[in-house]
Amino acid sequence: MARGRTLTTTAISAALVLGLAACGGNDSGGGNGGGGSSSADKVGVILPDTASSVRWETQDRPLLEKAFKDAGVKYDIQNAEGDAQRMATIADQMITGGVTVLAIVNLDSASGAQIEQKAAQQGVKTIDYDRLTLGGKADYYVSFNNTKVGELQGEGLQKCLGDKPANIAFLNGSPDDNNATLFSQGAHSVLDKATNYKKVAEQAVPQWDNQQAATIFEQMYTQNNGNIQGVLAANDGLANAVISILARNNVAGKVPVTGQDATTEGLQHILAKEQCMTVYKPIQKEASALADLAISLIKGDKAETNGEAEDTEGNRKVPSVLLDPIAVTRDNVKQVVDDGFVKAADLCSGQYAAACTELGIK
Q1: Where are the beta strands (DSSP E) in the chain?
Q2: N or C: which end of the chain has fewer CB within 10 A?
Q3: Which regions of 152-252 does DSSP assign to beta strands (E)?
Q4: How many CA atoms lie within 13 A of 193 on its CB side?
Q5: Pairing status of strand 101-104 against strand 125-129
Q6: Which residues, 6+ apart, have CB-to-CB distance to 107 below 8 Å?
Q7: CB–CB of 286/1 below 8 Å?
């Protein structure tokens, strides 16, 4: 739900803690093996939601669970369900429960920074996962190069549009998500240089909400009397919202739309030639990098990083593991399936079967 090197609570009652522990989205019983860690050491991971992307529960959670179990490290993985207060409460619960490493995917930098401040006060190491917390206290950061993601989106849209004049609409991610800022910066760094393109609309979508995205794009489309030839959509969920409006106006497939996350739905739109491209971020590599880093911290080993991310609000550089994203068009959808990221059976169902056969996907 990926940095270009300029990446521009109070105590809770026992009843509330117990209430949260009883809620869904909690996996704290597994991974109780010995490994090289103390029996008291535990990793806590707080995922952000289930709405902005399906990846958190279908990809990140099972991958992290397996890595921690294989390493014999205790873990507690929970989901904040898009609620910053819930995330803060889960963090309090985890810190009180004795985690020694806490990884979060913040919902916004302000609430994430509060969690990391409290963790630091208790001697808990923190890792920003996927999204950098501006003004935070994270010891490490694990993500994809998010400016590069935007660059790939810009290059992809440019390739689909060609040299002809075009009006472009930008549908950006949530304004309080630093990743969304970086995606936009990367895309603009490519498209703003093309004098044959004109930006006719641009708006951020609060909380990456796909329903709001459809409303916002419909307004863009109406205000421009349908005179939009390309759409820079920040992820596959937003792209699907855009395509639904284009379909309603009988132009789906005629207006190139970008995406991100290589979701099954996004890839199906690419197979149907309704979506120009997506950006594949092999989440297994990101989850593996987080698990390796957390396990190293638990076991007292050296944490391996390959770069730094600049926290412009905290005026500091955060040691980072930064991974490379991959642009996906119709020509290389097969790679995503071959990697096991999506299943051919899910991708190639119904109306998409013929395209899969054409592209050798099975």
Answers
A1: 26-27, 42-47, 74-79, 101-104, 125-129, 140-144, 166-172, 197-204, 230-233, 278-280, 307-311, 316-323, 326-328
A2: C
A3: 166-172, 197-204, 230-233
A4: 9
A5: parallel
A6: 48, 49, 80, 82, 83, 84, 87, 176
A7: no
Structure tokens at 131: 């999204």
Taking the C-alpha atoms of residue 281 and residue 234, their distance in angstroms, rounded to an integer, is 13
CA distance 114 to 136: 7
In tens, the pLDDT along 209-250 reads: 999 999 999 999 999 999 999 999 999 999 999 999 999 999
| Cα-only R_g, the chain | 21
Distance (Å, whole) CA 310 – CA 100: 25
- Amino acid at position 12, single letter: I
- Rounded mean pLDDT of the chain? 90
Do the Cβ atoms of 204 and 172 come closer than 8 Å?
yes
